[in-house]
Amino acid sequence: MNYIKSLMLLSALVLTACNNSEKESPLLTSPEGRDDIVHLSKAQFENAKMEVGQLTEKPFAETVQTSGMIDVPPQSRAVISAFAGGYIKNTPLLVGNKVSKGQRLVTLENPEFITMQQNYLETAEQLSYLKSEYERQRIMFDEKITSQKSFLKAESEYKSNLARYNSFKKNLEMLNINPASVQAGNIVSAVNIYSPIDGNVTQVYVNTGTYVSPADKIMEIMNTDHIHLELKVFEKDLLQLKKGQEILFTVPEASKEIFKGEVHLVGTSIDPNTRIALIHGHIDEKDEQNFTAGMFVEAQIVTGTSDQWALPENAVVEMEGKNYVLLIENENAEEFEILPVEVKIGATYNGFTAIGKSEKFKPETKFLTKGAFVLLQEEGGGHDH
């Protein structure tokens, strides 16, 4: 227990520094003849606002361990590309910019756009003549004035031209060129590409002057209003899960804070190779703005609870791979006699840590639950519950 004494003394020094106006004896001292008992004066207990408590039965979550990522629904993610090749004339947006549905994203320029509009105009002009000729031949055929061959030829030419006309018109509409404006004589060499959704720009793949083909990505837009959890669970755990169960999750790379969510959909299919199913979870609305798609998460899905003996989590400290609590062995008007006891701990839930059984613990046993050990955690490198 020599290193425990050192830890206690370290805690004492920290508290003494915090209360340097006090002229009392050290916070924790070891009595003569024993190296496992330390003394804490009542005055310093009160000055440091420490607390004493007992083991209590608390409900602890029974959970299924899983991992996954933060994601958004497919309809909340858009990859922007061009329907025809061209050069990027203007791209005013940067990663992180907020965009609205229908907002201009980039301007694309290509002389071929002019050719497409000319083809449309020529086909539109031919269509008017061919339609008249088709209708004239139909009337004459009905009256047996012309041959079936002449009628069928006129019909074929008209319908073929009509198909080309509709094709050219659709191509212009996909390029955001107004066919009616083209027929009015307004020919353009540049077209705008607009955002199909509200969201934020998450990727930009081009610069001004870049040539893009229809297969190239220009940028990516994501709407995080419906951000959610996509978790992977093994087949053996699937039957324990159902809609509405609580999810406790962390983003290990970003924070140790525990966030909450809820199971929304339980996957009905299992990957035949990995034996894994997907769980779709909703995140508490107050936490949604903390995340972005692609973050890795570790999660526990709460399937039930069980009662266990526990102490407040700040009553337990980890040092050199072992966990300790401070047991109040004796108490009088002047001081506490405190015994550091190594314990086996279980889960931590709602601010309490499950404590394993020990022959030293009785129903009336008291522990230091707030105070010196809190400072000891801070000075000793911390403890991740």
From TrEMBL:
Q: Which residues form the CusB-like beta-barrel domain?
A: 229-302
Which biological process terms from the Gene Ontology are attached to this UniProt entry? copper ion export; plasma membrane copper ion transport
- Name the protein family: Belongs to the membrane fusion protein (MFP) (TC 8.A.1) family.
Entry keyword DNA-binding: no
Q: Where are the membrane-spanning stretches?
A: none
State if Transport is listed as a keyword: yes
**GO MF annotation: an example:** transmembrane transporter activity
Can you list the GO cellular component terms from the UniProt entry? cell envelope; membrane
Q: Which residues form the signal peptide?
A: none
Q: Which Gene3D superfamilies match?
A: 2.40.30.170, 2.40.420.20, 2.40.50.100, Helix hairpin bin
Q: What is this protein called?
A: Efflux transporter periplasmic adaptor subunit
- Give the top-rank taxon of the lineage listed in the UniProt record for this protein: Bacteria
Q: Which key words tag this protein in UniProt?
A: Transport
